[in-house]
Design a protein that fits this description.
With 368 residues, the protein is α+β, with helices and mostly antiparallel strands. The protein is built from ten helices and 20 strands. The strands form four sheets. The chain has a six-stranded mixed sheet with strand order 6-7-8-3-9-10, with helices on both faces. The protein has a five-stranded antiparallel sheet with strand order 13-12-11-14-20. The protein has a five-stranded antiparallel sheet with strand order 15-19-16-17-18. The chain binds adenosine-5'-triphosphate (ATP).
């Protein structure tokens, strides 16, 4: 197995800068997702790594070998695409064998290997079926087995689950991760689905407008977003534009209310900041007493299964809070409530010119 290094990778299409100088080191055996909204450059990056496209500038290394100019079929890379790209006139086992046939491996060996891989993806029983006799999820399993058959140094997956229904998607992403871990194969996974990226990756690279906004473990990306864009795109986030009022005591001023945010300590008085609060840390209570908080009115309730999501109008902004169904039942639409959050739970980002624009773009694409 080998790691991957992207060095100042840039790709322009006429006036469009699809990738704007990406630097990234992926360790051998690591599972990294490229996450971002439509048009951020994920597929472009993957195509450059696969060799289907050439960078305007920059280099791609696999291990310590510079493969920037190497033809795709000489790169030792397995790929799985969004569309089920199986050969319709071949059975599952013949599809999986295909890469081995091209590599002129003997008939007996390649059949044995193909059957092993079909077992690995749970389809040993479907070796003689044609693609049209398989469900979408099964077809993607065959595509995965086919990509793995050549024992690639690197596995690239481009939104492989997006055509499948929600339940199969969850099941298959777990299987992909299990197989990847077992084989220890370096993997890059492109998705616009933050839950998918967070659930299966060692690290997630969040892309926006051709650049990496942040790279980190799922916990880092979710718990400590480095930019307003990441905060907005990954998970649901309350964003409170505030002013640091009392840095010694960590107090910020939000629309005339004073809130305590530990991260505001030591900031500049008068600094414009974005306070970030996850919905699961917001506490909502009936009545209007409020320590470190605000008062407002419940304007909607949405049952999401494990939690109920409340929207609360407090001051000029609508807040999002996730509560247990039981607690939410006591706070019907129209209820007057107080709303607060632990001072240690909020993150803080400096609000500079342009940050708000980035946020709007992210909000348009964010998946709740
Ligand atoms: P999606 O999730 O919608 O597939 P993406 O993040 O994969 O989006 P890319 O397909 O990498 O985005 O595209 C990045 C930018 O480059 C977009 O603005 C796109 O329109 C542009 N682009 C990509 N390929 C080409 C091309 N062959 N010619 C011109 N522009 C292109």
């Amino acid at each position: 197995m080998a790691g991957v290094r992207l060095q100042s990778l840039r790709r322009r299409f006429g006036d469009v800068v699809a990738l704007d100088g990406i630097d990234l080191d992926i360790a051998s055996g690591e599972f990294v997702s490229f996450l971002g909204p439509s048009g951020c450059g994920k597929t472009t990056a993957l195509r450059l790594i696969a060799g289907f496209d050439r960078p305007t500038s920059g280099r791609v290394f696999v291990g310590d070998k510079d493969i920037t100019g190497v033809a795709p079929n000489k790169r030792d890379i397995g790929m799985v695409f969004q569309a089920y790209s199986l050969f319709p006139n071949m059975t599952s086992v013949r599809n999986v064998e295909f890469g081995l046939r091209v590599r002129r491996q003997g008939r007996g060996d390649r059949r044995t290997r193909a059957l092993e891989l079909l077992e690995l993806v749970g389809l040993g029983h479907a070796a003689d079926r044609y693609p049209h006799q398989l469900s979408g999820g099964m077809q993607q399993r065959v595509a995965l087995a086919r990509a793995l058959a050549i024992e690639p140094r690197l596995l690239l997956l481009d939104e492989p689950l997006s055509a499948l229904d929600a339940k199969v998607r969850v099941q298959l992403r777990e299987e992909i991760r299990r197989i990847q871990t077992r084989l220890g194969i370096t993997t890059i996974y492109v998705t616009h689905d933050q839950e998918e990226a967070l659930s299966i990756s060692d690290r997630v690279a969040v892309l926006s407008q051709g650049q990496i906004e942040q790279i980190g473990t799922p916990a880092e990306i979710y718990g400590a977003p480095a930019t307003p864009f990441v905060a907005e795109f990954v998970g649901t986030m309350n964003r409170i534009e505030s002013t640091v009022a009392d840095p010694d005591n960590g107090r910020v001023d939000y629309e005339g209310s004073s809130l305590t945010v530990d991260a505001a300590r030591g900031r500049q008085r008068g600094e414009r900041v974005l306070v970030l609060v996850r919905p699961e840390t917001v506490q909502v209570e009936a009545a209007a007493s409020s320590e470190n908080g605000l008062t407002g009115e419940v304007v909607s309730q949405t049952f999401l299964g494990s939690v109920t999501r409340l929207r609360v109008l407090a001051g000029p902004a609508e807040w999002t809070a996730d509560l247990s169904a039981e607690r939410a039942a006591a706070l019907p639409i129209g209820a007057q409530v107080s709303l607060h959050f632990p001072p240690s739970s909020a993150k803080l980002l400096t609000l500079e010119g342009g940050a708000a624009e980035g946020l709007e773009a992210a909000a348009a694409d964010s998946v709740e």
